[in-house]
Design a protein that fits this description.
heterodimer; A: about 140 residues; mainly alpha; 5 helices; B: alpha+beta; 2 domains; 5-stranded mixed β-sheet; 4-stranded antiparallel β-sheet; 10 helices; 11 strands; about 40% helix; transmembrane helix (chain A); membrane (chain A)
Chain lengths: ~140, ~375
């Protein structure tokens, strides 16, 4: 394990050094400052906004496994979907076939599907035990 | 030496309790998934980068014609999938942000700083990569150069992180994931399954921009190459955006071919040259691709008509200015290249590069030069 760790660390440090050199070689001082700002913003946005937000949402699902699962899936789909939805509001030439879909509707469909599957997993054990919800028993 | 912090955190310090679900078994598995995904993204990115910026001593291959389509398609889809994966991995360790004391030693402080760099570089790389796919560039640097450099920062800091955490990773992987739910909700297995479903949904709803048969599922795909209004193929830059509309349609247009001798062709002369048909994909840096049927004179025939041959180095120049104005082509790609006059059975449209565009196997979309006006053979 020691050899693996030393080899990995050496490879990592070499790759880091090459990355830093490429960066310095291809950017001006002003661009580097902006880049450092973006790096810092990425960490701060994640650690101070996104992570506490996830904790808060997580509390909603506490003690309810189906809801927790649905929140995890929905959150991960939104991590990409929200960016795509946001950019689709900008105008793009239709010839590009870029961001021409109705992403709001598509996200609603996907989130509805997630909610539906979660509701099913919640109901399935009761249905199996014959505890059918009242509505269907009447029908 | 760092000043010694008090044993107990101050009363306002948030709790570092990991909660019932987090733990080494889950983190190690998420780490393996996110790390593997980053590695695939890195390697396919390097191959794509080489195909777009080949070294002079190693000509880019012409076969398979879909090589760039494959590497860039995988690069973009794994990059998109890595966003939710990395967020899940970060969630699994985010209680450690609140650990007390914040740093036990200089080495511990350095290790935490390196994790900070890792997180920053990964998030920046993935988000700017996705924004590039969405054709949005709100930063002041050259995207390709900085994306390439940051990729090395990411893979280097991942390797370093794995080296530091290897014993914990081994322990975590050796610990079975509990199936049992806790009083507060999902089991660890349930959490991992939900994360898998979330990431799987993202992949399933975007991969259709590369894999044609999955296009009906592509609800979140930025591109729908199957729904292009112009000759059944998307363009990435219209003639209007490139500022070539007038020059491309002008009666004074000529294609100049310069080698040992020089020739000049009008549009009708180009259209009357013997033509060939080829089926070749357009594959773009943004990850989308689509196959199309092309027809036009062989580039090699034109090169031969001014004294060149299959071993010539050929430079193709567009009517447009800027970074896509010139591309060079040689070897296998040259032998397989057409100067297309027709696309999918129709005369090439203005946005697709009228009067003629270059189309050759294995090239990146931006090297398939449109609105060609000059060919130089050396």
């Amino acid at each position: 394990m020691r050899t693996t760790r030393i080899t990995l660390a050496a490879m990592g440090i070499s790759a880091l050094a090459y990355g830093v050199w490429r960066l310095l070689d291809h950017t001006s001082a002003a661009q580097l400052v902006a880049y450092a700002g973006w790096l810092a913003a990425a960490v701060l946005l994640h650690d101070l906004v996104l992570a506490p937000g996830i904790e808060l949402v997580g509390r909603v699902g506490r003690g309810r496994p189906a809801l927790q699962g649905a929140l995890v899936v929905a959150g991960l789909v939104l991590s990409v979907g929200a960016l795509v939805l946001w950019r689709s509001t900008a105008r793009h030439d239709p010839a590009l076939a870029l961001l021409q879909q109705d992403y709001g509707l598509h996200l609603l469909l996907l989130l509805g599907l997630v909610a539906g599957v979660a509701a099913l997993t919640r109901l399935a054990p009761r249905l199996r035990r014959g505890q059918t919800p009242r509505l269907s028993r009447r029908a | 030496m760092l000043p010694r912090p008090p044993e107990e955190p101050p009363s306002w310090w948030p709790s570092a309790d990991p909660g019932p679900t987090r733990g080494g078994a889950l983190t190690a598995r998420l780490g393996v998934l996110a790390g593997s995904s980053l590695l695939v993204c890195f390697v396919t990115g390097l191959i794509s980068h080489y195909l777009g910026h080949p070294w002079s001593w190693l000509p880019p291959p012409a076969r398979p014609a879909w090589l760039y389509r494959l590497t860039q398609g995988i690069h973009v889809i794994t990059g998109i999938a890595t966003i939710p994966l990395v967020l899940a991995k970060l969630w699994s360790v985010q209680h450690r942000l609140r650990q007390w004391p914040p740093a036990r030693s200089v080495a511990h402080a350095a290790e935490r700083a390196s994790v900070g760099l890792l997180v920053a570089a990964v998030l920046l790389e993935l988000v700017t990569g996705l924004l590039n796919v969405l054709q949005y560039y709100p930063w002041p640097w050259d995207f390709v150069a900085v994306h390439f450099a940051t990729a090395w920062l990411v893979i280097g800091s991942v390797a370093l992180h794995v080296a530091v955490q290897l014993p914990a990773i081994r322990d975590g992987l050796a610990t079975p994931l509990s199936r049992r739910g806790t009083t507060r909700g999902l089991s660890r297995r349930g959490v991992l399954g939900s994360i898998g479903l979330g990431v799987g949904t993202v992949v399933a709803t975007t991969v259709g921009q590369v894999v044609g048969p999955l296009a009906p599922l592509a609800l979140l795909a930025p591109r729908r190459p199957d729904r292009a209004p112009d000759q059944d193929l998307p363009v990435n830059r219209t003639a209007a955006a490139a500022g070539v509309g007038t020059a491309a349609r002008a009666s004074t247009y000529r294609l100049e071919v310069r080698g040992r001798t020089e020739r000049s062709f009008t549009v009708s002369e180009l259209e009357s040259l013997p033509s060939q048909r080829r089926s070749l994909p357009i594959a773009c840096v943004e990850g989308w691709s689509r196959n199309a049927h092309w027809q036009g004179p062989s580039l090699l025939d034109l090169v031969a008509s001014v004294g060149g041959g299959a071993s010539s180095q050929v430079t193709v120049t567009s009517l447009e200015d800027g970074p896509y104005a010139v591309s060079s082509i040689r070897d296998g790609q040259l032998r397989g290249a057409l100067l297309a006059t027709h696309l999918n059975g129709q005369r090439l449209s203005l946005d697709h590069g009228y009067p003629v565009r270059l189309i050759a196997p294995g090239r990146t979309g931006e090297q398939q030069t449109k609105w060609v006006t000059r060919i130089e053979v050396s």
